[in-house]
Amino acid sequence: MISLQKKWIVPILMVGLFLLGGLAVNQQSCSAEIVEGVALYNGDVQKARELALRDAMRTMLESKVGLYVHSSSEVDMGVLVTDRIVARSTGYVQIREVLSEGVEGDVYVVRVDLDANDTNIETKYRDDVAKAMAAALEPRAANVAVVDYGIDGRIRRDERAVNIVGQYLNEMGIQLVEHEGVAQLLTYSPTPYPAELRRLARSDGDNEANSVLAGTMREVDVTRDKSGYYKGVVEASFSLVGIQNGYANTYMEQFVGLGRTAEEALFAAKREAAAKATEHLARAALKTMQFENRGGDYNLNTTVEIHGLWDRANQSSMINNLLEGAKCRITRAGFAPNGAYKMKLIATGWENLYELSQEIIRGAGLNGIRLAPLESTTKIILQVQ
Questions:
Q1: Is the four-CA dihedral 98, 102, 104, 106 of positive or negative sign?
Q2: Number of H helices and number of E strands within the chain?
Q3: Quick check: 208 and 141 in contact, CB under 8 A?
Q4: pLDDT by residue (tens digit) across 92-102?
Q5: pLDDT band at residue 22, thresholds of 50, 70 and 90?
Q6: Which end of the chain has less neighbouring CB within 10 Å, N or C?
Q7: Please, are residues 182 and 197 in contact by the beta-carbon 8 Å criterion?
Q8: The predicted structure's pLDDT at residue 123
Q9: What is the chain's mean pLDDT, rounded?
């Protein structure tokens, strides 16, 4: 391991209020706090600094989101909402000043003066809870089970990980259905064959799920760093298997979490493992299975989001006409609270999202609207330039 000496970087006073993401916060109901953030340091100062700042934002946001949580299931909904806000940041959190930052042992530590927009955070939480409830009504369902293999030798179900997995699945329109048989299988077979998972799910006559998501998380190590923080290492192994078809995909990776206690460090690693594994597997499956072949034509079920339209009535009407001309049937459309024009549609004859997005960009350009695509694997997101 590289020998690291403690070093401190001159605190950076932000010019005005710098927003991680680049836009100013809507001044509604805001609050300021001094928060500490940490990240593993592997020689890349810029990356460690960015991750530590995000950790500070996460810490503040978790305290804010916690104000709206009223049940155990909502605790893990809060984890998902916090992840989304940290990923986007715009309109939720401002970095007023970095008070101190530096490397301590193998950990990069920052102390930051943050401003949080309480109104926007509460609105985001309420909206996402409503979306998760609506998604739970969708017909797609997955049997889910997650089991921990502890350093102490104990094998136990991880209900918090199951809840986190469930929230990410709900966001993608997949309902969680816990499965007793799968959980029991994982307690003695950490990496079961797809055929075993499929057989268990099929043997349950009342099972309405069409897939199984099974995961194990093995606690590898937990140590205390020179910085005083604990580092927890977890090895995650997840599988997503189709029940009525031959689809199968696996995800295996090791995760490291930081915390003030050994338990917090291990949970941080498990939280990231559950989120990353679910997103990777579910998005890959949706990308594969979002096509339905009816009468020889491919029907692509997707969502289109367009950000930045300034003439809502005329431009949304133009977009609707453009899509209908491209053999797309719009099943629902409207403007979201963030101003984006969102449409759910079924596109006939289109084999992938890229080709459809390029047709929208081309058609909008002919009508005087320049659009640029934003990264997404499960829907089309476009931004007015």
A1: positive
A2: 9, 17
A3: yes
A4: 777 888 899 99
A5: very low
A6: N
A7: yes
A8: 66
A9: 76
Place of tokens 């949706």: 286
Band of pLDDT at residue 5, cut at 50, 70 and 90:
very low
Beta strand ranges found along the chain (DSSP E): 7-9, 13-18, 30-40, 93-104, 107-117, 141-149, 155-157, 175-178, 211-224, 230-242, 248-259, 291-294, 297-307, 328-335, 341-348, 371-374, 380-384
Q: How far apart are CA 374 and CA 370, in angstroms?
A: 13
Sort strands 248-259 and 13-18 into parallel, antiparallel or unpaired: unpaired
Q: Where in the chain are the domains?
A: 7-130, 136-289, 292-384
Residues 224-269 have pLDDT tens digits of 988 899 999 999 999 888 776 667 888 999 999 999 999 999 999 9
Tokens of 370: 């320049």
CATH of 292-384, one of 3.30.420, 1.10.10, 3.30.70, 3.40.109: 3.30.70
Q: Is domain 136-289 given the CATH code 3.30.160 in the classification?
A: yes
